[in-house]
Amino acid sequence: MRGVSPGMAIILLLLVAFCLAALAAPWLAPFDPLRQSLLLRLRPPGTSFAAGTYLLGTDDLGRDLLSRVLHGARASIAIAALSVSVSLLVGTTLGLIAGWFRGWTAVIIMRAVDTMLSIPAILLAVLTVAVLGPSFFNLILVLGLTRWPRYTRVAYAQTLQVATLPYIRAAEMAGAGSGRILWRHILPNIAGPLMVVATSEFGLMILFEAGLSFLGLGIQPPHPSWGSIMSVGRQYVERAWWLTVFPGACLFVLVLCVNLFGDWLRDRVDPRSQGR
Amino acid sequence: MLAHLAGRLAQAAVASFGVLTIVFFVMRLSGDPTLLLVPEGASAEQVAQLRTALGFDRPLAVQYLAYVGDLARLELGESLVQRAPVAGIVGERIPYTLALAGGALLVALGLGIPAGIVMAVWRGGVLERVLAGFVLAGQSLPTFWSGILLILFFGVYLGWLPTSGADGVAALVMPALALGALTMSTFARMARISVLDELSRDYVTAARARGLSVGAAVFRHVLRNAAIPVVTIAALEIGNLLAGAVIVETVFAWPGIGQLAIQSIQARDFLVVQTIVLFVSSVYIAMNLLADLTYAAIDPRIRVRG
Fold this sequence. Notes:
heterodimer, A: 2 strands, B: mainly alpha
């Protein structure tokens, strides 16, 4: 493995910092993110009061914005990570099956992929969450189950390629079953490109969760999410800029870092794509 | 060419059918689709009555066939919440979304393509790095954040542009910028790659050897060839822009189908939401088809292979 450039080191540090902040939110947050104080509605950043200093200001119900942004990171990263896991699992399994068995199985699976890719994912997610009702679990399920086709495409193409290699034939002749070959011999060899997809999807999931929460279809109040904080910020845009600027900046920097990390990973996995 | 056309048409038909089916089942995920269509506060008796009237008490397969049959005849149904045909409710909002998507496409083409060309021609320069930074930012910007930032700066701080609504062209500027940012980045990346590809070809070297400057070579020869992938991407992006409008329209209170979808969810008027999802997906599929066919028409290599 080649050395990591200083720029990449900063990005990795930022990503680690985001994850740590999300994990440690209950201990890092100066206030209870749900505690309201009607005396302290929409105070600007740096307001000090008996209970302490509100570094990033307060929201429309007098809750501490810093505490809410920290807890929001938790929701954002947890939902993105879990839904990426769901779609990675579903998509990869289908792709492996299609690539290994080919024939009608592959035709059906790949047609389903084409269909899923022809519905705009955000609209399908909006419709499904609205029908099922928004909850943490439903959000993960919906995001996970709308975003599997990209993994299937990659897993399918890669499996087709790898399956023709001599060592797979050798394993087959040695008597290994399909399941064992797929799991032990093919999956490890196609994991790189799948990880590249998973990384870019992770950034997208963070944006989706925030978007759904912004529309009122994600994390439900009073629980904090970057998207829902910003939708309150939209209402008070003329009085409280901090409600949109801070959570939005966190969202932007996190997604930017994830995307840069994804590009870097892609160059590692597939050196041909370098500089593209 | 005919075989290619037939293959693509069949693919589009399968995709449309798949979309219908997915939407049908999603609407039934809640258990009782009647509850998604009745106005709020309806009594149990009214719900039961409607269930029979709408045919939701029939077997699922019968319901599915009836649903496909209705859609095939373009009978979209009547909204029970608004007591009006859904086609009219959605139809009167479509021009607004098209105007917004058109504006965003204009922003994306007008800024993205020149940026991509500049990045390819002056590869390795300071200008490329600066533009690459913008392209990267455009890809990671959530539209609702950039939208509100635009409102804060141009609407609240400078007071130049209206912060919401759809009064005239001025009101379109900020939503179009917010919506177009992601597509702009896509165009810039595509234009850069395809110009770079063309620049490395023999005919460019030959043109340069004849004494043509880089700029002249780019304008006379490269752009025409580099345009092929960009044109097809433009068709695909129209579908993405319509979907992205859901959020941008909510931010700017722009009265298009995106805002209508969210308002209809709040009013529990799911027939409208279903119609919007079907409409945007059809445009998406049609644009995919158009992109494929354009590609085949411009580039003969695709026809032969396909």
